[in-house]
Specification:
With about 475 residues, the protein is an alpha/beta fold. About 35% of the residues lie in helices and about 15% in strands. It has 14 helices and 15 strands. The strands form three sheets. An eleven-stranded mixed beta sheet has the order 1-3-2-6-8-7-14-15-11-9-10, sandwiched between helices. The N and C termini lie close together (about 10 Å).
């Protein structure tokens, strides 16, 4: 019998509704697994178990009275450290914020509780949420359950490790450069980066900041595509201010079967080479899709220069996160930028440009971004979706080297580590939705995923295609040793 710890959240919610398992019983089952496996994985880094158990008892009593709180009634879950959860620290991995205890829940966390979720803990992140690994000086290193010598991804790495190992029923992360999709791919999970702005980020903050960050979204990670739809339905919708005049209605998928889809397949981005094994798994998927009647446009892509899109994203990404600098750090970065050689367009140069970007230059880059958005719009008149790699390789080995000084091996050649953000950056830059589904294991037994990019507001279509892949190609598989 399948351990209930690995069941989709939709199935868990159904079992609870039908009184096949109790809310407290299920919570305690997950907590026992946390006690058993988390000391090795270090995925869940803060908990409020007494509060969770009290709420689980209340949820059981409510069901006994015939009350149902919502679609997540009784489902245990965790959320990424970067969300405010009342009574727990929100650190973003920054040592100076070790004792930053949240006084109130983030809006999305409140919506999850209102939907009946039992939130019992928070999961680990890299410092400032700025790495495809998840380690910091407060909580230490999170390990990938498929291979503890490797990273689970980042910045929602603790989220992915906990889900893959069956330590939680559902997870919520955030993504500005692949931070839900990269960990999902490296841990064999499903994930969704929503269309920009449809899920309010209020309370996903360090301190009292309220302004949303450019390109940052919040979104689900799960063991099934159906769970992505469920969590998205809970957290999406305008905040209190926007709700006065706006209502979110995402279009339903226009297709029902695989063979009705027209997809483009980006097997390789010549500006960001991917490993042979990544390409081989994508080619195998392409053969499967063609065999099943899907119209596959190999090599088709939007009509913009890929290198230009990556450059605009790199600079705007660092501009978006530049507000975390102190005045002294800004002055130091400005001094370093002025030392750059004319024409230097390396990853470090782009970082320094973004961190010290004059507003006029930002406006020009934003204009370039919107021209790229229109190219995507034209592209999606011909294709329903674009399928592309999400990472240049499978999970990397732990490496404490700072990201801008780090290299990663791809087929024996060393690439700048920051290439890892280029492929997910396509969707972030253009505000597009993007789902991730697992498509297999590489030669070392490590998971590989694919990202499913769609036109703006086609979130449910992206998730629907992921669900079709789950049904007909590959579903979640638990890592060995955690069954």
């Amino acid at each position: 019998m399948t351990d209930p710890a690995f069941l989709p959240a939709t199935r868990l919610a159904s079992l609870i509704r039908r009184r096949k398992i109790g809310c407290l019983e299920l919570l305690d089952h997950y907590l026992a697994r946390v006690d058993r496996f988390n000391p090795t994985l270090n995925a869940i880094v803060a908990t409020d178990i007494p509060r969770a158990r009290r709420r689980a008892r209340e949820a059981d009593r409510a069901l006994g009275r015939g009350e149902r709180w919502g679609p997540l009634h009784g489902v245990p879950m965790t959320v990424k450290d970067s969300f405010h959860v009342a009574g727990l620290p929100t650190t973003w991995g920054v040592p100076a914020r070790r004792d930053n205890i949240a006084r109130a829940d983030a809006l999305s966390v409140k919506r999850l509780r209102d939907a009946g979720a039992m939130i019992f803990g928070k999961t680990n992140v890299p410092i400032w949420l700025a790495d495809a690994q998840s380690f910091n000086d407060i909580y230490g290193t999170t390990r990938n359950p498929w291979d503890p010598e490797r990273a689970p991804g980042g910045s929602s790495g603790g989220s992915a490790a906990a889900l893959a190992a069956g330590l939680t029923g559902l997870e919520m992360g955030s993504d500005i450069a692949g931070s839900v999709r990269n960990p999902a791919a490296w841990c064999g999970l499903f994930a969704h980066k929503p269309t920009q702005g449809i899920c309010p980020t209020e309370g996903h903050a360090l301190g009292a900041n309220r302004a949303p960050l450019d390109m940052l979204v919040i979104g689900p990670l799960a063991r099934s595509a159906g769970d992505l739809s469920l969590l998205l339905s809970v957290i999406a919708g305008p905040d209190e201010i926007d709700a006065a005049g706006l209502r979110l209605t995402l279009p339903r998928p226009g297709k029902k079967k695989l063979e009705e889809y027209r997809v483009a397949l980006l097997l390789d981005d010549e500006t960001v080479p991917t490993s042979r094994q990544i390409r081989a798994l994508h080619q195998a998927l392409a053969r499967f899709l063609r065999h099943n009647g899907v119209k596959v446009g190999a090599g088709a892509r939007p009509g913009f220069d890929a290198a230009d899109s990556h450059r605009v994203f790199d600079v705007l990404l660092r501009a978006a996160t530049s507000g975390r600098q102190t005045d002294e750090e800004f002055a130091a970065n400005e001094k370093e930028r002025k030392k750059l050689a004319p024409g230097d367009d390396g990853k470090r140069a782009r970082m320094l440009q973004g961190m010290t970007l004059p507003h006029l230059d930002w406006l020009r880059l934003d204009e370039a971004r919107h021209r790229i958005r229109w190219k995507w719009h034209e592209f999606f008149r011909r294709y329903d979706l674009l399928l592309a790699p999400i990472t240049v390789s499978a999970a990397m080995r732990h490496d404490p080297t700072p990201p801008y000084q780090r290299s990663v091996p791809v087929d024996g050649a060393m690439q700048p580590f920051m290439n890892q953000v280029s492929l997910p950056g396509y969707a972030n830059l253009a505000y597009l939705p993007s789902s991730v589904a697992p498509i297999g294991l590489d030669g070392e037994g490590l998971p590989v995923g694919i990202q499913i990019i769609g036109p703006q507001y086609s979130d449910l279509t992206c998730i629907h295609f992921a669900r079709l892949l789950e049904q007909h190609y590959r579903s979640f598989v638990s890592p060995p040793g955690y069954e």
